[in-house]
Amino acid sequence: MSFQFHKIRRLPPYLFAEVNAMKAAARQAGRDIIDFGMGNPDSPTPQHIVDKLTEAVRDGRTHRYSTSKGIPGLRRAIAGYYDRRFNVALDPDSEVVVTLGSKEGLANLAQAITSPGDIVLAPNPSYPIHAFGFVIAGASLWHVSVTPDRSFFGELERAMRHAVPPPTALLLSYPSNPTALTADLDFYRDVVAFCKRHDIFVISDLAYSEIYFDGDPPPSILEVEGARDIAVEFGSLSKTYSMPGWRVGYGVGNKDLIGALARVKSYLDYGAFTPIQVAATAALNGPQDCVDDIRTLYRERRNVMCESFGNAGWAVPPPPATMFAWAPIPAQFQELGSLGFAKLLLEEADVAVSPGVGFGERGEGYVRLALVENRQRIRQAARGVKQFLSRVRDAQDAADMAARQKARQAEAAE
């Protein structure tokens, strides 16, 4: 018997799966794959945070159920961070909720505020949960540009004229995953003004607030006067403190939206393990030298990647923020598309990247490279890329190489 599930049918095939399967097969065959595919930080969590976890876990009282909204100390620490970093005063009881990473918070907020048939304005390309959290909740998507300029507002205006029913929410994420684009406060002021005029909620993902390299630190939309009338913002400790596997993040902002999220979560989970929340509190309240160190690490890797890959013949624009580079695929591979290029790069150069089309159709023509390998490995990857590109003079060479790769895969599958 074959079952068909409505919500699953609305989710497109996972476009990273082919590259992931090839990556696993190559490693099984003993090949050394340099993996820039997943944004999975490779450096350990700072020791003082780990020490606080081990201290807390020794106390048997912390082994019981926690609270889905988050322990009071962590909610106060999150409010303290917003006060120091953005000069935004939050009420820890009504404007802050702890989440199991920002991804869970985004998805459960979508469940809380979405009715079937709602239209949500979602950037394209974007991190998949930004769009598909709402798809799973029953909404339809209206894609808008991810570039924070006047064209963005032109697309919002078109959506308001033509979308039926009118959009209920706008998703934002700056610094952006995957494009690394950043936004300033003037942009956020215009967003808040537009969305207030049209009764639209704003949901901002600020997961990369502390991973920036050029210019001023990224702002929060909540710095805009009146933003909390319509906006919530999500953040995460995953990248800032190199804590990805700990799964701890937060949502802050509008009391009604935070209350709706907290209510849904009260039915679904008991919150993160209490010692993890205690350690997260220590991360936010403790010494912040580790944040500077992590930022420096990514900046150095960015510089090495852009320089070495450029010397190899592939221009990778330096990202101003995030732990990702968003690179146009070389001209001779354009006809293959980003998935075809990613597969060929893995097969021919032992280098894994994420195809841009996996982040939305407007990501076609690009790949995303995560800065999760050390500088020596990045230079090693650049040497492989250089050798690979030296064998490809034009689009026909690329097509021939892709055809040979496809034939080898078919033969191996028999």
Query: Helical element count?
Result: 14
Biggest beta sheet summary: 7 strands, mixed
Strand content: 5-15%
Largest sheet, spatial ordering of strands: 2-8-7-6-5-3-4
Question: How many strand elements?
Answer: 12
Please give the oligomerization state of what you see: single chain
Radius of gyration: 22 Å
User: Which secondary-structure class do the elements indicate?
Assistant: alpha/beta
Distance between the termini: 27 Å
Average of the residue pLDDT scores: 92
Poorly predicted segments: none
Helix content: 40-55%
* Overall morphology: globular
Order of helices and strands: HHEHHEHEHEHEHEEEHHHEHEEEHH
Question: Can you put this structure into words, describing what you see?
Answer:
The structure is a single chain. The protein is globular and about 60 Å long. Helix 2 packs parallel to helix 12, helix 4 runs parallel beside helix 10 and helix 5 packs across helix 9 (255-268). The relative contact order is 0.16. The chain is of the alpha/beta class. The chain has helices spanning 6-9, 17-28, 47-57, 72-86, 101-113, 128-136, 150-162, 185-197, 255-268, 274-285, 289-312, 337-349, 375-390, 395-413, and strands at 34-35, 96-99, 119-123, 140-144, 169-173, 201-205, 231-236, 249-253, 324-328, 351-352, 354-355, 366-370.
How is this fold's topology laid out?
Blueprint (H helix, E strand, L loop, with lengths): L5 H4 L7 H12 L5 E2 L11 H11 L14 H15 L9 E4 L1 H13 L5 E5 L4 H9 L3 E5 L5 H13 L6 E5 L11 H13 L3 E5 L25 E6 L12 E5 L1 H14 L5 H12 L3 H24 L11 E5 L8 H13 L1 E2 L1 E2 L10 E5 L4 H16 L4 H19 L1
Parallel strand pairs: 1-10, 3-4, 3-5, 5-6, 6-7
Antiparallel strand pairs: 2-8, 7-8, 9-12, 11-12
